[in-house]
Amino acid sequence: MTFLKTAATCAALALSVLVASPALAHDTKTVGDITVSSPWTRATPPRARAGGGFVTIVNAGGEDRLVSASANVSTRTELHEMTVTDGVMKMREMADGIPVPAGGTLELKPGSYHVMFFDLTGPLKEGENVPVTLTFEKAGEVTVDFKVERIGAKGPEHGEHGGDQMRNGDMDHSKMDHGVDAGHMKHDKSKD
Questions:
Q1: Which of 1, 13, 47, 161 is 20 to 30 A off residue 177, Cα-Cα?
Q2: Residue 10 — left, alpha, or beta (φ > 0 → left; ψ -120 to 50 → alpha)?
């Protein structure tokens, strides 16, 4: 009888964690050896021209490469990297894709690799989902729903506060004009 109570308690605890954790509620899909999880993006103001998308990619097989992304919320979707060198933030398109290490994890996140949605067809609204198709060189295509979090969100969790454009190295892409030198922000075309 004790075993049944313990099993029931563990099941109830696991269910409460799943219900209480917004990060776990995000879309998770597998294609080949690739598992894509926690896809999210930030809400954008009404006239925003661009947005960024973030996701975790786990590779259970040999090396692969994320070669492209597409979404119907923008006229152009690209893979990008943000770096800061000598205090200058640089953005560059990853035209050849982004390597996904064998047996490893690739995290697309603010301040690093990310998906860029250019020329948005309308604002990204908090609480909605954005279907995005990710194409891998070996594993193929998978479509996942990127959950739209609040403007300025740092991750796929609700309950954060504030909406600053730049915090702790994170950039709200909805307020950035790629390709234009904005002080310490440049789109680095030399590496394209």
A1: 161
A2: alpha
Q: 152, 91 in Cβ contact below 8 A? A: no
pTM score? 0.71
Exposure of 90 in the CB half-sphere (CA atoms within 13 A) = 14
pLDDT (tens digit per residue) in 16-25 = 333 333 334 4
Distance from C-alpha of 64 to C-alpha of 139, rounded to nearest angstrom? 7
Q: Which two tokens stand for residue 15?
A: 């269910």
pLDDT at 156: 85
Identify whether the C-beta of residue 154 lies closer than 8 Å to the C-beta of residue 160: yes
Contact 165, 48 (CB under 8 A): no
C-beta of residue 55 within 8 angstroms of C-beta of residue 143: no
